[in-house]
Amino acid sequence: MMLRDAVEADLPGILAIYNHAVLNSTAIWNDTPTDLANRLAWLRDRRDKSYPVIVAEENGEVLGYASFGDFRPFDGFRISVEHSVYVAEAARGRGIGRRLVESLFGPARAIGKKVMIGGITGGNAASLALHAALGFVETGHMPGIGIKFGQRLDLVLVQKEL
Ligand SMILES: CC(C)(COP(=O)(O)OP(=O)(O)OC[C@H]1O[C@@H](n2cnc3c(N)ncnc32)[C@H](O)[C@@H]1OP(=O)(O)O)[C@@H](O)C(=O)NCCC(=O)NCCS
Protein backbone atom coordinates (compact mmCIF):
# COMPACT_ATOMS: atom_id res chain seq x y z
CA MET A 1 0.00 0.00 0.00
CA MET A 2 1.31 3.44 -0.84
CA LEU A 3 0.13 6.98 -0.29
CA ARG A 4 0.37 9.54 -3.08
CA ASP A 5 -1.32 12.62 -4.48
CA ALA A 6 -4.60 11.85 -6.22
CA VAL A 7 -4.82 12.09 -10.00
CA GLU A 8 -7.96 12.27 -12.12
CA ALA A 9 -7.71 8.53 -12.89
CA ASP A 10 -8.35 7.89 -9.16
CA LEU A 11 -11.75 9.58 -9.26
CA PRO A 12 -13.85 6.46 -10.03
CA GLY A 13 -12.29 4.79 -6.97
CA ILE A 14 -12.81 7.88 -4.83
CA LEU A 15 -16.40 8.15 -6.09
CA ALA A 16 -17.14 4.53 -5.18
CA ILE A 17 -15.88 5.01 -1.60
CA TYR A 18 -17.75 8.31 -1.26
CA ASN A 19 -21.05 6.95 -2.56
CA HIS A 20 -20.76 3.85 -0.37
CA ALA A 21 -20.51 6.16 2.64
CA VAL A 22 -23.48 8.22 1.41
CA LEU A 23 -25.69 5.17 0.97
CA ASN A 24 -24.61 3.08 3.96
CA SER A 25 -23.43 5.37 6.74
CA THR A 26 -24.06 8.63 8.53
CA ALA A 27 -20.45 9.76 7.92
CA ILE A 28 -21.63 12.00 5.04
CA TRP A 29 -24.85 13.91 5.66
CA ASN A 30 -26.17 13.52 2.12
CA ASP A 31 -28.98 11.20 1.05
CA THR A 32 -28.25 10.80 -2.65
CA PRO A 33 -25.07 9.56 -4.36
CA THR A 34 -23.03 11.97 -6.41
CA ASP A 35 -21.35 11.60 -9.82
CA LEU A 36 -17.90 11.77 -11.38
CA ALA A 37 -18.36 15.38 -12.55
CA ASN A 38 -18.94 16.44 -8.94
CA ARG A 39 -15.77 14.69 -7.73
CA LEU A 40 -13.78 16.15 -10.65
CA ALA A 41 -14.90 19.65 -9.71
CA TRP A 42 -13.97 18.90 -6.08
CA LEU A 43 -10.46 17.67 -7.04
CA ARG A 44 -9.84 20.69 -9.25
CA ASP A 45 -11.04 23.05 -6.53
CA ARG A 46 -8.65 21.48 -4.01
CA ARG A 47 -5.80 21.76 -6.51
CA ASP A 48 -6.61 25.41 -7.29
CA LYS A 49 -6.23 26.14 -3.57
CA SER A 50 -3.04 24.02 -3.28
CA TYR A 51 -4.87 21.73 -0.84
CA PRO A 52 -3.83 18.06 -0.93
CA VAL A 53 -5.94 15.08 -1.91
CA ILE A 54 -4.05 11.95 -0.85
CA VAL A 55 -5.01 8.43 -1.92
CA ALA A 56 -3.99 5.09 -0.48
CA GLU A 57 -3.38 2.77 -3.42
CA GLU A 58 -2.66 -0.93 -3.65
CA ASN A 59 -2.34 -2.86 -6.90
CA GLY A 60 -3.93 0.01 -8.79
CA GLU A 61 -6.96 0.16 -6.48
CA VAL A 62 -7.92 3.18 -4.37
CA LEU A 63 -8.36 1.88 -0.79
CA GLY A 64 -8.97 5.26 0.80
CA TYR A 65 -8.39 8.97 0.57
CA ALA A 66 -8.05 12.08 2.69
CA SER A 67 -8.12 15.78 2.05
CA PHE A 68 -8.78 19.13 3.66
CA GLY A 69 -10.58 22.29 2.70
CA ASP A 70 -11.45 25.60 4.26
CA PHE A 71 -13.28 25.38 7.59
CA ARG A 72 -15.44 28.46 6.99
CA PRO A 73 -15.21 30.99 4.13
CA PHE A 74 -14.18 34.06 6.12
CA ASP A 75 -10.71 35.61 6.26
CA GLY A 76 -10.18 35.02 9.96
CA PHE A 77 -10.52 31.24 9.56
CA ARG A 78 -7.58 31.10 7.13
CA ILE A 79 -5.32 29.40 9.70
CA SER A 80 -7.74 26.47 10.06
CA VAL A 81 -8.77 23.64 7.76
CA GLU A 82 -11.41 20.92 7.97
CA HIS A 83 -10.32 17.49 6.80
CA SER A 84 -12.04 14.29 5.76
CA VAL A 85 -10.88 10.67 5.54
CA TYR A 86 -12.54 7.59 4.07
CA VAL A 87 -11.32 4.02 3.82
CA ALA A 88 -13.05 1.32 1.75
CA GLU A 89 -14.91 -1.09 4.01
CA ALA A 90 -12.75 -4.09 3.05
CA ALA A 91 -9.53 -2.20 3.83
CA ARG A 92 -10.40 -0.91 7.31
CA GLY A 93 -8.43 -1.81 10.42
CA ARG A 94 -5.06 -1.93 8.63
CA GLY A 95 -3.77 1.47 9.71
CA ILE A 96 -4.68 3.16 6.43
CA GLY A 97 -6.96 5.79 7.98
CA ARG A 98 -4.26 6.71 10.47
CA ARG A 99 -1.60 7.07 7.77
CA LEU A 100 -3.92 9.10 5.55
CA VAL A 101 -4.75 11.65 8.26
CA GLU A 102 -1.09 11.85 9.33
CA SER A 103 -0.13 12.56 5.74
CA LEU A 104 -2.16 15.78 5.81
CA PHE A 105 -0.26 17.43 8.68
CA GLY A 106 2.92 18.28 6.74
CA PRO A 107 1.17 19.84 3.73
CA ALA A 108 -1.10 21.83 6.06
CA ARG A 109 1.84 23.21 8.06
CA ALA A 110 3.72 23.96 4.84
CA ILE A 111 1.00 26.38 3.74
CA GLY A 112 0.75 28.05 7.14
CA LYS A 113 -2.24 26.25 8.61
CA LYS A 114 -2.33 26.10 12.41
CA VAL A 115 -5.39 24.02 13.25
CA MET A 116 -6.97 20.94 11.70
CA ILE A 117 -10.63 20.33 12.46
CA GLY A 118 -12.71 17.20 12.06
CA GLY A 119 -16.50 17.15 12.08
CA ILE A 120 -17.48 13.63 13.18
CA THR A 121 -20.98 12.20 13.46
CA GLY A 122 -21.81 11.29 17.06
CA GLY A 123 -21.50 7.53 17.52
CA ASN A 124 -18.84 7.05 14.81
CA ALA A 125 -16.63 5.11 17.22
CA ALA A 126 -13.94 4.28 14.65
CA SER A 127 -13.45 7.89 13.60
CA LEU A 128 -13.60 9.23 17.17
CA ALA A 129 -10.97 6.68 18.28
CA LEU A 130 -8.77 7.31 15.24
CA HIS A 131 -8.74 11.05 15.85
CA ALA A 132 -8.14 10.70 19.59
CA ALA A 133 -5.19 8.40 18.81
CA LEU A 134 -3.75 11.11 16.55
CA GLY A 135 -3.96 13.82 19.22
CA PHE A 136 -7.20 15.51 18.21
CA VAL A 137 -9.19 16.79 21.17
CA GLU A 138 -12.96 17.15 21.31
CA THR A 139 -13.91 20.83 21.45
CA GLY A 140 -17.55 20.76 20.46
CA HIS A 141 -20.62 18.59 20.60
CA MET A 142 -23.74 19.78 18.80
CA PRO A 143 -26.68 17.49 19.59
CA GLY A 144 -29.33 16.68 17.01
CA ILE A 145 -28.31 19.22 14.36
CA GLY A 146 -28.73 16.82 11.42
CA ILE A 147 -30.97 14.02 10.22
CA LYS A 148 -30.38 10.88 8.16
CA PHE A 149 -32.18 7.54 7.88
CA GLY A 150 -34.89 9.10 10.07
CA GLN A 151 -32.50 9.63 12.99
CA ARG A 152 -31.31 12.94 14.44
CA LEU A 153 -27.52 13.26 14.26
CA ASP A 154 -25.01 14.88 16.61
CA LEU A 155 -21.91 16.61 15.26
CA VAL A 156 -18.73 16.21 17.30
CA LEU A 157 -15.97 18.71 16.54
CA VAL A 158 -12.39 17.64 17.15
CA GLN A 159 -9.29 19.72 16.53
CA LYS A 160 -5.52 19.46 16.55
CA GLU A 161 -2.97 22.22 16.84
CA LEU A 162 -0.48 21.76 14.04
C1 LIG B 1 -12.82 6.05 10.36
C2 LIG B 1 -11.97 5.31 9.34
C3 LIG B 1 -11.40 6.32 8.35
C4 LIG B 1 -10.81 4.60 10.06
O1 LIG B 1 -9.96 4.06 9.08
P1 LIG B 1 -9.14 2.70 9.33
O2 LIG B 1 -8.15 2.59 8.23
O3 LIG B 1 -10.07 1.56 9.51
O4 LIG B 1 -8.43 3.02 10.73
P2 LIG B 1 -7.00 2.52 11.20
O5 LIG B 1 -6.85 1.06 10.88
O6 LIG B 1 -5.96 3.45 10.68
O7 LIG B 1 -7.11 2.68 12.77
C5 LIG B 1 -6.43 3.70 13.48
C6 LIG B 1 -6.98 3.80 14.88
O8 LIG B 1 -8.36 4.14 14.83
C7 LIG B 1 -9.09 3.45 15.84
N1 LIG B 1 -10.10 2.61 15.19
C8 LIG B 1 -10.19 2.29 13.88
N2 LIG B 1 -11.28 1.54 13.66
C9 LIG B 1 -11.89 1.39 14.85
C10 LIG B 1 -13.10 0.74 15.26
N3 LIG B 1 -13.88 0.09 14.39
N4 LIG B 1 -13.43 0.82 16.56
C11 LIG B 1 -12.66 1.48 17.45
N5 LIG B 1 -11.50 2.11 17.12
C12 LIG B 1 -11.13 2.06 15.83
C13 LIG B 1 -8.08 2.71 16.63
O9 LIG B 1 -7.67 3.57 17.67
C14 LIG B 1 -6.95 2.51 15.66
O10 LIG B 1 -5.74 2.41 16.30
P3 LIG B 1 -5.12 0.94 16.60
O11 LIG B 1 -4.96 0.30 15.27
O12 LIG B 1 -3.83 1.29 17.25
O13 LIG B 1 -6.09 0.26 17.48
C15 LIG B 1 -12.80 4.21 8.60
O14 LIG B 1 -13.44 3.41 9.56
C16 LIG B 1 -13.82 4.77 7.64
O15 LIG B 1 -13.51 5.12 6.51
N6 LIG B 1 -15.11 4.85 8.09
C17 LIG B 1 -16.19 5.32 7.25
C18 LIG B 1 -16.04 6.78 6.86
C19 LIG B 1 -15.82 7.65 8.05
O16 LIG B 1 -16.44 7.50 9.09
N7 LIG B 1 -14.92 8.61 7.87
C20 LIG B 1 -14.60 9.59 8.90
C21 LIG B 1 -15.59 10.69 8.83
S1 LIG B 1 -15.28 11.87 10.14
TrEMBL record:
Keyword line: Acyltransferase, Transferase
InterPro entries in UniProt: Acyl_CoA_acyltransferase (IPR016181), GNAT_dom (IPR000182)
This enzyme's EC code(s): 2.3.1.-
Record-linked Pfam families: Acetyltransf_1
Gene3D superfamilies according to UniProt: 3.40.630.30
Residue span(s) of domain N-acetyltransferase: 1-154
MF annotations from Gene Ontology: acyltransferase activity, transferring groups other than amino-acyl groups
Enzyme superclass (EC): transferase
Top-level taxon of origin: Bacteria
Protein name (database record): L-methionine sulfoximine/L-methionine sulfone acetyltransferase
